[in-house]
Amino acid sequence: MKLKSIFIAAVGLFLATGCNSQNKQEVQPSNSKTMSKSIVIFFSHAGDNYSVGNIEVGNTKIVADYIREIAGSDQFEIVTHKYDGMAYTPLIKLAQEEADNGELPPYEGDAPDLSQYDTVFIGGPVWWGTYPQVMFTLFRDINLDGKTVIPFTTHEGSGLANCVSDVKKSFPKANVTKGFAIYGHEVRSNRSKVEKWLQSLGF
Asked: Cα–Cα distances in Å, from 88 out to 51, 93, 130?
């Protein structure tokens, strides 16, 4: 009976641990053999997107994956299920309402520990002139003082919009560099543009 009780307790602990890990966003390490000193923090929207249609992998995630592969950076994806399954038109309407009202939608899991990183890439699509509001929720929860911060965007005509200036406002004690913008419809066929940009940064 004692062995049976121990076995049941062990199974219960395993299941509880599994359930908790499914709900927690964690930093995804690069495949580099050396410890990465850079990380890509990004939000990417899959599903119905302007110009590229219904996609399984968001445009910004593709760029973030390029950075991970080329620069050996770790990754932290900002995840929210608020926009899941939304068609493009209601999505942009909701995004405008969030921006107008200064809303800060919640993201999944905990903010990442950035103490080990010197360089932080920050990327996302451009929604109404800046990053999606859920990114600003995370910005509120992290400290980038003294770090080199490199903004990038995926867009369909907005370029960098106000993203760089908004990052500077969010992190006034960080060294925010010139940003990089790439069209969303280009990301799947123009990896070389990302490579050239990263080479100019010394990666």
From this structure: 10, 9, 17
Lookup result for tokens 């867009």:
155
- Helices and strands counted in the chain (H then E): 6, 8
User: What residue type is 144 in one-letter code?
Assistant: L
Residue type, 135: M
Alpha carbon distance 64, 70 (integer Å):
10
pLDDT single digits (tens) 33-79: 445 699 999 999 999 898 898 899 999 999 999 999 999 999 999 99
Are 45 and 153 a contacting pair, CB within 8 Å?
Answer: no
Tokens of 114: 């950035």
188 and 55 Cβ atoms separated by less than 8 Å: no
User: What is the rounded CA–CA span in Å between residue 11 and residue 9?
Assistant: 6
Residues 6+ apart with CB under 8 A from 71: 38, 198, 203
Amino acid symbol at 81: H
Q: What Rg do the C-alpha atoms of the chain give, in angstroms?
A: 19
Cα separation, 136 vs 6, whole angstroms? 46
pLDDT tens digits for range 102-131: 999 999 999 999 999 999 999 999 999 999
Beta bridge partners of 150: 121
In this structure, what token pair is assigned to residue 71?
A: 């620069």
Quick one: tokens of 38? 């850079």
